[in-house]
Every structure is written in structure tokens, then in C-alpha cells.
Design a protein that fits this description.
About 15% of the residues lie in helices and about 35% in strands. It has helices at about 100, 175-185, 235-240, 245-260, 300-315, 360-370, 490-500; strands at about 1-10, 15-25, 30-35, 45-50, 55-60, 65-70, 90-95, 110-120, 155-165, 190, 215-220, 220-225, 265-270, 290-295, 325, 350-360, 375, 380-385, 390, 400-410, 415-425, 430-435, 440, 445-455, 460-465, 475-485. The longest helix is centred in the middle third of the chain and has 17 residues, at about 245-260. The termini are far apart. The relative contact order is 0.10.
């Protein structure tokens, strides 16, 4: 079989084109070749639906392969595809541009792209060589028989380092899946969460660490990650095809509501970063975490990250239990450095450490769910929180009057400045610099030891933060807390408005 088509995206056709093609009986493999200049493909994607109305391929065309395969076997199916029966009949190819990117084409429309579909056995790269996570009949739902959420890679109960926000060549990242794993090892990571833009990994390469399925839902009004996601939201296409911001926001709210009801972990990404700020008026009780450090090498990030940290303290003071999380948001090759930066943007910077009872996808997700996390750059931290009856972890609700908090900072080049952040009885947040920091010359570690009284009545939280003398971020340890408080500001936009008016 062979079909060649030239598709335009312009102001009349809209942001997506659809073409059909016939697949003969007995076809073993489909090859899709895209012919177009790279600079016009950064926001473009393809989706392929088979004759049984099943989604078989979804991929952005930014930096990855321009030769895409769908076959019966994972080893000859491009990442983002679902291997299995190549059924005869009418298939559909969608070629489109993200709503948020169509505006970037002003002055360059129409965008014409040639796509060739055949059954030729062309050499492929970027394939799923470690096995698929789903079959066509799973309807883009991870098959628990193909993906083992409880597979243990280590039995130790300890802190595990990973990254909850990064991209590959499947979306608009420049790094191959195999190279991502090499970089993860280089950065001493124990787990990895790929989060492509509105796209789901359907499998992974062979590796010896848990790859936790994730996705970054990307819209014109904000980005959010879903961790441990098992299925593709039914309303995702409707969101992408929205022709107004109002429709897009309304559908995003419905997607978040559905994800929340199904128990997914939802994290707001870079809420104050440049043109990608968050504007969706989501109910805050449905958000599990806020990205307080996003790609710290990027030129706009420092101010945006500091605002995210401050805003999250405002939410904690209001009684919300939303945990801070980190994400490199890495898109680049290992030797690429943004203008003005001194270090490359690489997965694992920042590192998010999760305390887990053994290393598996489910144990890491359980640690995130309970806030057993700290986020670091260029150092490691070890919080030890001890009460009369038990030990606690960051993220825990304390059920006694006094605890001892020991925080050790290691592998840091500068003398750390350590802060205690807590809420006063009047609800305001205090940030106190700790002067009693003890240095162990043999171990090259800095330690603080504090007795903390947890008020019996009302609502109280306390957390710690590490910076340099030049106020550069080094570590964020999630709060411990006691009591309950009825929140006053229930949605993101309402909370943000009050925070901007009274706190900044």
C-alpha cells in the first residue's frame, strides 16, 4: 500500500486536518514518513486511529524521528504507538497544531506538510524495545499485566531521587529515551517520570529503574502533570480542539475533576513562569502538589520559582495540604546551556527525593501522595523528625505536642543558610534564619537540631529551606503540620488574587 498527502494548516482549515487511508488485509506494518522543515513542526503532532476506532499512534514532530512505525511488535513500533494487529479497513490520520502554538504561525501560514504512508519495512529508531504497556484493545489504558506497578527495584526503606517533569523526543524534547536513562544514571536518579505534552508513553526501553507513567496536560491557560496515570482522559481531544480560552478552561476543569475522582495525583506546573503561567480556576482540594522549582537554569525561573514557594506558604497558612515538588522540565541535550545560565538543563536538577518503603512505581507514588518529599539542588538533605512515640517524615500530620527536628545538609559547596518557615497564631508566615548550625569537619555536613512545639489547638505547620548566602535555592523540605483549618480560599484564582494583594 502507498498513499501520499500534502496537508495545510491555515486559518480556514483550523488547527487539525483529517485524512483517511485504506489498509489491505494481511498488512504487518505501517510506515509514516513526514517531510517538512523542522522549524515549522515544533507545535505539530500526528495521531493515527485504526479501522476499529482505536488510537494507535500519538507523537509530536518537534525533534524526534520523521519516520514513524506501527506494527505487530513493540520492537518495530515507534514510541507513542501501540503495537498489535494491523487490521484491514479505513484508518484515520490526524495532523494538527496545538491551540497554544497556532498563534506562533502568524505571518507564516499556511503550513504545508507532506506525509507518506506505506507498508514498507523502513529502518526505524526510537522504538519501544523494552516492551509495550498496553495493547490496542486496552483503548489507551495501561494493562496491569504488561506494566507491574509493584515491581521492586530495591527493598530498602530510604530516600530515592528522581525527576517528576521531563521531556523526550516523543514530544518537544531533544533527547532519545535511551540517552535519558544514561543521563538519569549520571545524575544518580533512582526513578524517572516522563511527562510529554498531551502524549502518553505506551512503553519504554529496557532499564533497571522504575519508569512511572506520567503526562503533562498542556493548554494555553496552564500546564499540569498527572503522575501514575493509567488512562488517557476522554476529553483531551476536546480540550486541544477548543476554539476559545473559555472552552479550553472549562474542559480542563472537567478533566481535573475526572482525574481527581479516579484518585490520580495532579500537580500544577511552573505556576508563575513567563508565558506559561497558570490561569485555570481549579478547586485547590483537587491538587496534590505544586511545582515549586522548575528548571532552575532557565532565565525566567528564579523569580517564578521563588513566587511559587511563597504562594505555597500562603496556601499552607490557609489550611491547604498541597505539597511542594520539583521538576527539571528538561528538553535539551546534555551539553546545551541556556543563554545566561552556567549549568545545563538536565533531568535530575532539581532532584525530588521521595521516602519510600522499597523502590517501585507504587511506593514512589504513595510517598508523593503523603508529601514524603524534599527538593534539592547541588546538595542532599536528611530530615530526622522524632516524637515521644514514633518518627515522622516531611508531609506527616503530627499527633503530639513536641518533636525534635534534626536536619543534616551534605554534599554542598557553600556554607548553607537554613530557614525555618511556620505560621503564626494570626495566620501570617514567619521565616526565621537559624543561627545554630553545626559543622562536622570529618563528615563535611551541616546540622541543625531543634525542639519544636506543635500547638494543640488550631492549625500549625513548619518546614525548612536551605539557601546560599546569595539567596540561591538549595533545598525545600515539605512541611509537617498539626490540627485542622477550614480553608478560606478554595480556588486557585481566588487564592492568587488575595496573595498578590496582601503578601507580595
Amino acid at each position: 500500500m502507498y498513499k501520499k498527502m500534502t496537508l495545510d494548516i491555515n486559518t480556514e482549515t483550523g488547527i487539525i486536518r483529517m485524512e483517511t487511508f485504506q489498509v489491505p488485509k494481511g498488512t504487518k506494518r505501517l510506515t509514516i514518513m513526514v517531510e517538512k522543515d523542522r522549524e515549522d513542526l515544533l507545535g505539530n503532532f500526528i495521531m493515527v486511529i485504526d479501522s476499529k476506532k482505536r488510537l494507535r499512534m500519538q507523537k509530536m514532530l518537534a525533534y524526534g524521528t520523521m519516520t514513524i512505525g506501527i506494527s505487530q511488535e513493540a520492537a518495530t513500533t515507534t514510541a507513542g504507538g501501540v503495537p498489535g494487529e494491523i487490521c484491514e479497513g479505513e484508518w484515520i490520520l490526524y495532523y494538527g497544531c496545538m491551540f497554544m502554538d497556532i498563534k506562533n504561525y502568524t505571518g507564516r501560514l499556511p503550513v504545508a506538510t507532506t506525509i507518506i504512508i506505506s507498508d514498507e519495512e523502513t529502518e526505524l529508531t526510537e522504538v519501544i524495545n523494552g516492551g509495550a504497556w498496553m495493547t490496542p484493545d486496552d483503548q489507551f489504558h495501561i494493562n496491569d499485566k504488561l506494566y507491574d506497578w509493584n515491581k521492586r527495584y530495591c527493598d530498602d526503606s530510604r530516600w530515592y531521587k528522581g525527576d517528576f517533569h521531563a521531556h523526550s523526543i516523543m514530544s518537544d524534547g531533544k533527547e532519545s529515551i535511551e540517552n535519558i536513562i544514561k543521563k538519569a544514571k549520571y545524575m544518580n536518579m533512582d526513578y524517572y517520570v516522563p511527562t510529554e505534552h498531551n502524549l502518553y508513553h505506551t512503553g519504554w526501553c529496557k532499564c533497571d529503574m522504575p519508569i512511572i507513567p506520567g503526562v503533562e496536560i498542556t493548554s494555553y491557560s496552564g500546564h499540569y502533570n498527572i503522575f501514575g496515570v493509567k488512562e488517557r482522559p476522554e476529553l483531551l481531544e476536546a480540550m486541544l480542539l477548543s476554539d476559545t480560552i473559555e472552552k479550553m478552561n472549562a474542559i480542563n476543569i472537567m478533566i481535573i475533576d475526572d482525574l481527581y475522582e479516579k484518585g490520580n495525583l495532579i500537580s500544577i506546573n511552573h505556576p508563575f513562569l513567563h508565558i506559561w503561567q497558570w490561569h485555570i480556576d481549579v478547586e485547590l482540594e483537587k491538587i496534590s502538589s505544586l511545582e515549586i522549582i522548575n528548571d532552575p537554569t532557565y532565565e525566567y525561573s528564579r523569580k517564578a520559582n521563588d513566587k511559587a514557594i511563597d504562594f505555597l506558604d500562603f496556601l499552607w497558612a490557609d489550611g491547604h495540604i498541597i505539597y511542594g515538588i520539583g521538576g527539571s522540565d528538561s528538553h535539551n541535550l546534555i551539553d546545551e546551556i541556556y543563554e545566561g545560565a552556567t549549568t545545563p538543563s538536565i533531568a535530575g536538577d532539581p532532584g525530588t527525593y521521595v521516602y519510600a518503603d522499597g523502590l517501585s512505581a507504587n511506593s514512589i507514588l504513595d510517598g508523593v501522595r503523603h508529601g514524603h518529599m524534599n527538593v534539592t539542588r547541588f546538595c542532599e538533605v536528611m530530615p530526622t523528625i522524632t516524637g515521644r512515640t514514633r518518627e515522622y517524615l516531611p508531609g506527616d500530620r503530627i499527633d503530639e505536642d513536641e518533636i525534635e527536628y534534626v536536619l543534616t545538609v551534605s554534599n554542598i559547596k557553600e556554607i548553607p543558610v537554613i530557614y525555618r518557615i511556620s505560621n503564626d497564631i494570626d495566620g501570617r508566615v514567619r521565616k526565621d534564619m537559624i543561627t545554630d548550625v553545626r559543622y562536622d569537619d570529618n563528615a563535611k555536613t551541616y546540622t541543625i537540631i531543634e525542639k519544636i512545639t506543635m500547638p494543640q489547638d488550631g492549625w500549625y505547620y513548619v518546614r525548612y529551606e536551605v539557601r546560599t548566602e546569595h539567596d540561591e535555592f538549595r533545598a525545600y523540605i515539605n512541611p509537617i503540620f498539626r490540627g485542622n483549618k477550614e480553608v478560606e480560599y478554595k480556588t486557585f484564582n481566588k487564592a492568587k488574587k488575595v496573595w498578590e494583594e496582601t503578601w507580595q
